[in-house]
Amino acid sequence: MKVDFADRIGRIPPYLFAEIEKTILEKKRQGGDIISLSIGDPDIFPPPFILDALREEVSNPRNHNYSFSQGEPDFRQAVSSWYEKRFGVEVNPQSEVVALIGSKEGLANVARAFVNPGDRVLVPDPAYPVYANGSTILCDGVPVVMPLLERDGFKPDLDKVNGNGAKMMFLNYPNNPTGATVDKTFLGRVVEFAEENDVTVCYDNAYSEICFDGYRAPSILEVDGAMEVAVEFHSCSKTFSMTGDRIAFAVGNKKLIEGLTAIKSQVDSGPPVYTQRVATKALESYVGDRPPRDVEKAIETYRERRDVFVKSLCSMGFQCDKPKATFYIWLNCKGGSIKFASKLLDVGVVATPGIGFGNYGEGYMRFSLTQPKERIEEACERMAKIL
Q1: Residue 277's closest CA among 244, 223, 332, 236?
Q2: Domain with CATH 3.90.1150.10 in the chain
Q3: CATH for 7-46+292-386, options being 1.25.40.850, 3.90.1150.10, 2.40.400.10, 2.60.260.20
Q4: What is the pTM of this model?
Q5: Quick one: which of 139, 132, 175 has its CA closest to 156?
Q6: Residue 202, Ramachandran bin (φ over 0: left; ψ between -120 and 50: alpha; else beta)
Q7: In angstroms, rounded to a whole number, what is the distance separating the alpha carbons of residues 224 and 212?
Q8: What share of the chain is helix, strand, coil (3-state, %, to 5)?
Q9: Where are the alpha helices (DSSP H) in 162-288?
């Protein structure tokens, strides 16, 4: 029997991180000591109260039934309360919140609800691949690149973006992979652009809580008029080191939440109830707009690693600023990113070539600060020998 993939499968490139995982496994099989600074999967364990809550909630037989497609009511209420504490934004838990099986799932499914074949979708470049691939190409949409250039602070120049006829725009700050940040003034311009061009904004705010040096990431929903044009995605993955638990949420315009929920009702049955119960306790652990001490300690650990790594890179002759958010270092590697990554691999250091995030990522490397400080120092020593 001949089995052919759908045409849309042929239009998406191989998933970069899956290829990196294969490389790491092969090197380990060969007996190499590999220091992986590639995939953004926290090495810091979830806070003890999260692990205690997981044990408690997973042991409750009542938590093993199907969830609602939109999520459990108490979880959605916790999201609503968290938004008011953290951002000063009031949202209706009944109609403006939906639970997600990780924000990646929500980012892909929101496009399925609104993007028709041939619709133009504005996507940043470099960027998390799901915006152009999982959200646009797999919905038979047409990705329209918004370059994120260093001279613009890795923000799209909205004066040069052609929004005419576009259906949707994806943005992500604090930014993966560049670590760039924005303020509410910029987000206000985004909302104005959306209103003028009748474009839906999908704002990926997964790194809002991983911030340093006094910076606090805003929500786009803090901007007047944003609730008319935007949906924002958050995740417990990075904040509480719960990547494998797959729990996140989207908040925003009622119609956008309704469409996303309609898609989810056809393709999944919501996150596990026990995971939502734990995430509820996680969100409730905030005191005012501040995270619990365990999360603050994790952020301080990332800051310390950032300082060590940036100092080492500068000592090697690179120009590298300290990012104010995320646990990524985005380095201008002064050449081809694939070649640079291969050179690092020769000394057992794995990093992500910028070309994997889009054409405008070429010439850069992304390093994840998801290894202990001692391993980062070891990686820097290895790099210094060959660079």
Answers
A1: 236
A2: 7-46+292-386
A3: 3.90.1150.10
A4: 0.94
A5: 175
A6: beta
A7: 26
A8: 45, 15, 40
A9: 184-197, 236-239, 254-267, 273-284
Q: Which residues in the chain are classed under CATH 3.40.640.10?
A: 48-284
The tokens 């000591």 sit on which residue?
33
In a structure prediction context, what are the per-residue pLDDT tens digits for the chain, which is 387 residues long?
888 888 888 777 766 666 667 777 777 777 778 899 988 899 999 999 999 999 999 999 999 999 999 999 999 999 999 999 999 999 999 999 999 999 999 999 999 999 999 999 999 999 999 999 999 999 999 999 999 999 999 999 999 999 999 999 999 999 999 999 999 999 999 999 999 999 999 999 999 999 999 999 999 999 999 999 999 999 999 999 999 999 999 999 999 999 999 999 999 989 999 999 999 999 999 999 999 999 999 999 999 999 999 999 999 999 999 999 999 999 999 899 989 998 998 899 999 999 999 999 999 999 999 999 999 999 999 999 988
Peptide bond into 147 cis (omega under 30): no
> Which is nearest to 344 in space by CA: 306, 291, 380?
380
Considering the domain delimited by 48-284, tell me its CATH architecture: 3-Layer(aba) Sandwich (3.40)
Nearest to 260 by CA among 89, 80, 96, 124: 96
> Please, are residues 327 and 295 in contact by the beta-carbon 8 Å criterion?
no
β-sheet with 352-353: strand ranges across: 328-332, 364-368, 352-353
